[in-house]
Amino acid sequence: MLDVNTSSRAGVAYAALAYGLWGFLPLYIALTTPTSSVEFIGWRILLSALFCAILLAVMRGWRATGRLFRDRRVVGTLALAGTVVAVNWFVYVFAVMSGHTVEASLGYFLNPIVSVVLGLVVLKERLRPLQWAAAGVAVVAVLVLAIGYGSFPWIALVLACSFGFYGLIKKRVGARAGAIPGFFVETTLIAPIGLGCLAWALLAGGGITLGSVSTDHTAALLLAGVVTSLPLLAFAAAAKRLTLVEVGMMQFIAPITQFLIGVFVFGESMPPERWAGFAIVWVALACFAIDLVIAGRRRSAATGAPMPRSPADAPGRPGGRGPAGPA
Question: How far apart are CA 203 and CA 258, in angstroms?
Answer without folding.
Answer: 33
